[in-house]
Amino acid sequence: MSSALNISVWSALDDQGRALALRRPAQRDATALNQRTALIVDDVRTRGDAALREMTARFDGVELASLAVSAEEFESAERSLTVAQIAAIRRAIGTITAFHEAQVLPPLRVETSPGVICERRMVPLQAVGLYVPAGTAPLPSTALMLAIPARIAGCPLRIMCTPPRPDGSADPAVLTVARECGVERVFKVGGAQAIAAMAYGTASIPKVDKIFGPGNAWVTAAKQLVAADALGAALDMPAGPSEVLVIADDTAHPEFVAADLLAQAEHSVDAQVILLTTSRSIAEACCAAVDIQLAALPRRDIAAQSIAGSRVILVDDLAQAMLVSNQYAPEHLILQIRNPREWLSSVRNAGSVFLGPWTPETLGDYCSGTNHVLPTYGHAKAYSGLSLLDFVKRMTVQELTPAGLRELGPTARTLAQMESLDAHANAVTVRLTALQQEASV
After folding, report:
1. Which domain holds residue 147?
2. Are residues 34 and 19 in the same domain?
3. 91, 224, 97: which is closest to 150 by C-alpha?
4. C-alpha closest to that of 96 among 48, 51, 151
5. pLDDT tens-digit series, residues 239-248
6. Which listed residue (100, 331, 372, 379) is catalytic?
7. What sign results for the dihedral spanned by CA atoms 174, 175, 176, 177?
């Protein structure tokens, strides 16, 4: 980390000090942001494509004749990539597909009582919107993480929105990933306006049922806004700035730890990195290694601002480190400790976990196979990372035979009567009466 940072000792901090040590960057002017986002959403909802074109010109500096990516643009995008780049994309598609295909669940069928059959079936979402940001850098990896599970789930309508570049084109790697993963409808729209367009639909962009993908504060606010509207679209998960927490003991490689911290810090100025370590010498060595590596980074200005708001905390032992980590609930948790798998059962709150010195968080971002769309800002306490299950609904089914109704119906009727819901009870009674009459004939 940076020499500008102090090393805190967890056991020496009081409750307020510990809360401050784990505090995330505050969202600037949240109320004003939400109000301005609502104006954008309302404008797109009212004026559709006209609003999108005006906002694209205002925010992205591009005037577009068409919001949709043409077939010629797809072809040109693929031709602009090198053989090595296309090979890397296809290799990542293979590993991510393998992990997500393994998440397909068979239909569940249980006879809970004689003659009472209960089932659960997976039904793909009918229309999904995939948002791929391109703020300080394009993110074709996000296109991979969204398009692959959507394809495996079998969602019939899959569209993608991504901001245009200054020349009016979409990032060629994003377009190549989209086509390789079966997404043929891509629109050059970004920000909160893209979320609004997918949530409510326009003449060019179809309405979807659920929106996936990370983004800046504007995108996050828009996703939350449209998700709260019954006529809008659901969101994948709440999110905030990206983050990583590293737990290191005296066996950790300072250069590895520093590299992992900086890999996250270069995302944005409000990304947060935290190091928990049992060793002061490791803490100091990691700080020094960050200074050295930071100086060589092309995005050092962004990373340096992130590092300035980050933390190094000395803990008494690994048990205490796990308690602190679970309290923080990081998006990414890296265990640079001896026998890391032995501590995995102690992890309760984390989006994704990386075990040992040879597992950089970068692999999870791109190609190990797991999904990199993860809960941030402490939401890992209640939310999971994106998976195939986010692209399907789990629909339950029940079917009773006459014998099953005779045997279990009285239980339902009694419970309904306990709640004074007489119509519920009657729905059982009329059937039981009919069965009795049939039996007496």
Report:
1. 30-104+124-236
2. no
3. 97
4. 151
5. 878 999 999 9
6. 331
7. positive
Query: Three-state secondary structure along 124-173?
Result: ECCEEEEECCCCCCCCHHHHHHHHHHHHHHCCCEEEEECCCCCCCCCCHH
* Cα–Cα distance, 6 to 10 (Å, whole number): 12
Is residue 111 part of the annotated active site? The answer reads no
Exposed (0-12), middle (13-18) or buried (19+): which is 151, by Cβ within 10 Å?
middle
Identify whether 331 is a catalytic site residue: yes
pLDDT in tens, 336-384: 999 999 999 999 999 999 999 999 999 999 999 999 999 999 999 999 9
**Which of 180, 266, 267, 332 is an active site residue?**
332
Which of 192, 194, 202 has its CA nearest to residue 45? Answer: 202
Question: DSSP characters for 408-420?
Answer: HHHHHHHHHHHTT
CATH of residue 140's domain is 3.40.50.1980
- Do both 95 and 74 map to the same domain? yes
DSSP symbol at 209: S
Those residues whose C-beta lies under 8 Å from the C-beta of residue 56, and which sit 6 or more positions away, are: 62, 63, 64, 67, 164, 188, 189, 190, 193
**Helix, strand or coil, per DSSP, at residue 367:** coil
The reply to whether 179 and 289 lie within a common domain is no
355: three-class secondary structure by DSSP = strand
d(CA 87, CA 90): 5
Q: Considering the entire predicted model, what is its pTM?
A: 0.94
Q: How many separate domains does the chain show?
A: 3
pLDDT digits (tens, 9 = 90+) for 202-219: 999 999 999 999 988 899
Of the residues 218, 236, 254, the one at which a domain ends: 236
Tell me the C-alpha distance between 23 and 380, whole Å: 15
Query: Is there a domain that residue 113 lies in?
Result: no
